[in-house]
Description:
The structure holds two protein chains of two kinds.
Chain A: E1 21-25, E2 28-32, H1 37-45, E3 54-56, E4 59-61, H2 63-76, E5 80-86, H3 89-102, E6 105-106, H4 111-124, E7 125-128, H5 131-137, E8 140-144, H6 155-158, E9 170-174, E10 190-191, H7 197-210, H8 218-229, E11 232-238, H9 246-260, E12 265-271, H10 277-288, E13 294-295, E14 302-303, H11 310-315, E15 321-326, E16 341-345, H12 349-355, E17 362-366, E18 376-379, E19 385-388, H13 399-409
Parallel strand pairs in A: 5-6, 5-15, 8-9, 8-11, 9-10, 11-12, 15-16, 16-17
Antiparallel strand pairs in A: 1-2, 3-4, 3-17, 6-13, 13-14, 18-19
Chain B: E1 3-13, E2 18-28, E3 31-33, E4 43-46, E5 50-54, E6 56-58, H1 66-74, H2 84-93, E7 96-104, H3 109-117, E8 123-129, H4 134-141, H5 146-160, E9 164-168, H6 172-177, H7 196-210, E10 216-219, H8 229-238, E11 244-246, E12 254-255, E13 263-264, H9 266-275, E14 279-282, E15 289-295, H10 298-303, E16 313-318, E17 322-331, H11 336-351, E18 358-359, H12 373-381, H13 383-391, H14 395-400, H15 412-427, E19 443-447, H16 452-457, E20 461-464, E21 467-471, E22 474-475, E23 483-487, H17 494-500, H18 510-513, H19 517-523, E24 529-533
Parallel strand pairs in B: 1-4, 1-5, 6-7, 7-8, 8-9, 9-10, 10-11, 11-14, 14-18, 23-24
Antiparallel strand pairs in B: 1-2, 2-3, 5-19, 12-13, 15-17, 16-17, 19-20, 20-21, 21-22
Amino acid sequence: MRVGSVEWTCPFCSLLCDGFALASREGALVLDGSDCPRARAGLVAHQSRGQPEAFVDGAVASLEAGLAEAARRLAQWRQPLFGGLGTDLAGVRALFRLALRTGAICDHADGEALAAGLRALQDRGQFHTTLAEIRARADLLVCVGTDAVTHYPEFFRRCGLDRDDTPCRRLVFLGAEPPTQLPAHMETPRIAGSGDLLADLQQLATLVGAATCRHADQELAGLAQALRAARYAVLVWEAAALPRQGALAVEMLHRIVMLLNRETRAASFALGGSDGAATAQQAFTWLSGLPLRTRLQAADPEHDPVRFAGERLLADGAVDGLLWTWSWTPERLPSVADLPRVVLGPPGMGPRLRQAGAARDCVFLPVATPGLNAAGHLFRTDGTVVPLVAARDDALPGVDRVAASLLEALP
Amino acid sequence: MSTRRLRGGRVFDPANGIAGEVRDVVMRDGRIAELDPRAAVDEEIDASGCIVLAGGIDLHSHIGGGKVNLARLLLPRHQCTPSALATGRHYAEMGYTSVFEPAMAASDARQAHLQMGDVPIVDHGAYVMLGNDETLLELLAQGADPQLVRDYVGWVVHATKALGVKVVNPAGISAFKFNQRKLDVDEAHVHWGVTPRQVIRALARAVHDLGLAHPLHIHCSNLGVAGNIASTLATMDALEGLPGHLTHVQFHSYGTEGPHKFSSAALELAEALDAHPNCSIDIGQVLFGQTVTASADTMRQYANVDFASPHKAVLADLDGDSGCGVLPFRYREQSYVNALQWSIGLELFLQVRDPWRVVLTTDHPNGAPFTSYPHLMRLLMNKPFRDEQLARLHPEVAEQSALKHITRELSLEEIATMTRAAPARLLGLRDRGHLGPGAAADVAVYREQGNAEVMFAHAAWVYKDGEPVVRDGEVRASPVGATHFAEVQFDAGVQRLLDARGDAPLGLHRHHAVIGRDELCACCNGGRLFAWACEPRSP
Ligand code: SF4
């Protein structure tokens, strides 16, 4: 992929914006057409292109030696955890095979947010929509407990709210501060609510279902009316911004959507699944039949969304080795340093592990970043698989190749 | 590669007029070969006491794509939602070697190919859904030239690497996005003013003119609604003689007779099929037990939300071109409606005279999981067994079902037609579904016995491209399957229309819309790609 062309897809959040250009200025990659801070930070983090170095316990090693040592250690662990899982589809496929062989438990670094959404879905289901549908017909957008754009800066633009022909008339913020920059040509009210999002959603559900409710909050009553009057209302939520007991709030939100659909049209839209989280969740589900937080073993994989939470296993010392995969920002190191680790990360992660005093008992193997220096596929937050192109070539192997080599090298 | 001879099995190969003759089948370098019976081979397999068939072909089974995965998330690890890996293995154990995903949303094509790429052993392909995409509806609303429609359909097939084209509840999924709750064949879409009849006609014409081998694959209007036989017949009529494949017709063959205002219209459909040689069907048989229904028909799935069991549902409006509804469902013997559905499916199988136009399906997982095919085959081949089952059902159905009086038992030859020869022919897979020289050496060998269910559940041997993959019902090798897709010709000028619509057609930037061969190969795990070149037909 030639830099300067428009054909770039940004991999740095699950909106996977595919309409901006990437330009090269003074050796640095910069985004053209958007000032998205998240994308900028992502590009800056990968600016330096130093010599990629593998290491074994902090000592520089060739990639081959690193791979061999990593495979040797991996084979010795009785209960490995495959954490992070920050990679693209090909990487997930390869890690899955490796996990199946080693009996690993698998969870994404943001597995907690994934689990909340999954629990709500499994309990009662949901009615969701996609970016293209929002652009085409949403006349009322309600951001529930999130301003949406702090973590998903281009969201409103992806919803077409900046376009003259947007059908959207109102953009409501429930239980969240509106951002400073708001789309023009539409009302953008804020409903403060009681400060307890779950209670507010409960009341809203009552109001949407029965129209009246004693001691109703006037603003919520107004919102319920607007929702019922809308032709196509969309309730937006963000997995990582949920309060405690997040699954309950999401369930309530789904209930409101289901109630609305009895008379008019409505849907929910989830923001989440960035950094390969949605990709790992989806691919593990089709490969094994079970979502993440599963212990893979050929005969009988075991799923437990609580017991097999990655961070919990690490905190409890319930695993004896960690294979950490994170192809995105070099800063996201494994949360533990006193456990044997194999770390797959961008070249910049190696030095950071050393600086953090986390290089002991650790094999580091540099990998490419999909969408930056490798092609690949990721799931967008609305479920569409988006292809990524390489903006430059750093001659780095992808997670898929490294994981496949590890599998081959297992004794 | 090597040469193998299956010696002394009874061969059923309807495409080549062979019905139970004892003969040898030779596989050489992945193909069926003719060989002197005395010539030496690398391996000789004693198939005496066995029947030998081409590998099974399922032309309608939901094995890949967003809604399949939603079903897995909703009902984890249920036999109706097997993993991709288990799907390939279970199909192979039953002697199936090709399976086709019938409802690929254009915007979800990559996911569908990715998931199918992880289904091992069996070859696969998909039909892309059209007829609820805003681009086509707008073209029809503007009265666009059929040539432009054809080129657009061609581009979508090319972009998504589809083998065929499917329409689900024509214009109805889109209408539901505008809060329309029902759409009859001659009723207008509330926004676009287009009728299902127009959509059917336009798509059938485009599919025909493009030269796609598989006729337009049609999920009719009003799925599951009492009295929907009228819309099914109207849909056949809308084809105006062009080829059409009506899918899971069991769900579309309901009358309104009787005390429950819900009755079998199987005979009407069978008769209509006699009168419409341009039409073929698959059944979508219902079998009892827990399953999950997964469909793009948001309009009809939403209407059934209250019947979901367990009571939950995932629904979605998708990318300006499709929808999705996933509902767990439990078919019960003591439910009048479910029992009648069971009966209607079997009546259809047994009342349609031409087995070349009927394909055996359960619309996996909608009517039942595909793993129940052997049970279904036994029901079709064994009248006393069928009567036994019927007697256990809701008393009114047991009493009144036309099934009681149907004595037909399908023969092995007819089963081989409905599960091999007919689907291969309907898909245009010239070298599949038969055992003639040059055909792909996808072969299933079953140990002959009285109980068809036991026989078909576990093949004694299965060969994929001439190599053994199953022995005594157990998978021994899991090669990557191949992908079948159509290569169509269309006027590249259609790109202008798409450019003008931004990312509307596929919910993706237009630069990423087309799946190239290399990308397809990567999605499909490096499996072989079979491109079927289409000869355009003059209108
Ligand atoms: S919103 Fe997300 S995908 Fe879009 S440019 Fe910003 S970081 Fe990239």
